[in-house]
Amino acid sequence: MIIVSACFLNIKCRYNGEATPYTWISNWVEKGLAIVVCPEVLGDLPIPREPCEIQNRTEGHFKIVDNTGKDQTKAFLIGAEKTWEIAKIVNAKCAILKARSPSCGFGEVYDGSFSGQVISGNGVTANLLEQNGIVIFNENQEDDFLKYYNKLSIEEVL
């Protein structure tokens, strides 16, 4: 089973109340091979909401704040934990998550200055899933995802 960011399915759950649909991703959900989640909504953040970024990154410590300075760390951690619980229940092997998001970003995220600059790092949900053996992709990695997916056995897929 695959975990998929809900915003890829025209579900308007992003911080700005919009979606970023991708047909190649929604096809996996339509086939019954993917579960849709939005960690930020699972953490009880509203739609729309102020944009958030990770700040004060040091080894094992961070804070996620919105652009008004409000600390939203707890909501992001709750959403990550709930997403991990779903991943365990469905025996997920991989996830396709929204690039650069403070929840779902993998490999790079915004730098915490709200300036549009990116740095190396992971969002809290992507990080938790990866730590627990889930292979992470983003919407720009269709070819990499297909290569990975095609190597899975039928038992791993289901």
Automatic annotation (TrEMBL):
This is DUF523 domain-containing protein. InterPro entries: 2-thiour_desulf (IPR007553). The lineage of its organism: Bacteria, Bacillati, Bacillota, Clostridia, Eubacteriales.
